[in-house]
Amino acid sequence: MHQWGTAACKKNNSSPAPNAATDVPWLKLVAKSSEGCTIQEVYRLNTVGGQPPATCDGQNATINVPYAAEYWFWAAPS
Question: What's the pTM value of the predicted model, to 2 decimals?
Fold first, then answer.
């Protein structure tokens, strides 16, 4: 497995998933700083699931909301 390290990122843009009622939005994140970071952009795409229940009534104290997504990582040129 390749170790990419960590990158402090902030949200740059988002788009509703095609099925926004059940799937979390698609995101573009950008690095807060290029200092010490190889990764400059992160994209979360093709999400499935992740939207919380409409209400907490009848739910346990801890709620798990599973989702799947495809993540793309863009690195700065060497």
Answer: 0.80
Listed residue (28, 9, 22) closest to 71, CA to CA: 28
Tens place of pLDDT per residue across the chain (78 aa): 666 667 889 999 999 999 999 999 999 999 988 777 788 899 999 999 999 998 989 999 999 999 999 999 998 776
| Helices and strands per DSSP (H, E), number in the chain | 0, 4
The residues pairing with 30 across neighbouring beta strands, listed in sequence order, are 10, 41
- In a domain, residue 49? The reply is yes
26 contacts: CB under 8 Å, gap ≥ 6: 14, 15, 16, 17, 43, 44, 45, 46, 47
Range of the domain at 14: 9-54+62-75
In a domain, 3, yes or no: no
